[in-house]
Specification:
By secondary structure, this protein is an all-alpha fold. The chain has 3 helices and no strands. It has one domain. The chain is 90% helix and 0% strand. α1 runs antiparallel to α2. The chain starts with a helix and ends with a helix.
């Protein structure tokens, strides 16, 4: 049962990664990339690596997403001047 969940999660990760690449809006790409990172947390938990999952959740999903959003906001502000 766990293997089936892992395979389904992997396919969903690939789907969101492709959506992040193909999205025309940068904010949508950031959201899709964040979802991909969150799904990788599920994969790490399935692989029984909770320490790697916590690190991925904090750095990959939280910190990187916030850095991307702040960078996008800074780009929009500098473009308005």
């Amino acid at each position: 049962m766990i293997e089936i969940i892992g395979v389904i999660t992997g396919f969903i990760m690939i789907l969101f990664a492709l959506m992040a690449i193909e999205s025309k809006k940068l904010l949508n790409s950031i959201v899709f990339l964040s979802i991909t990172s969150l799904l990788s947390v599920v994969e790490f938990i399935i692989m029984k690596a909770p320490d790697v999952a916590i690190t991925q959740a904090v750095i990959g999903s939280g910190l990187m997403t916030s850095i991307f959003v702040f960078t996008l906001m800074a780009m929009k502000k500098s473009g308005e001047k």
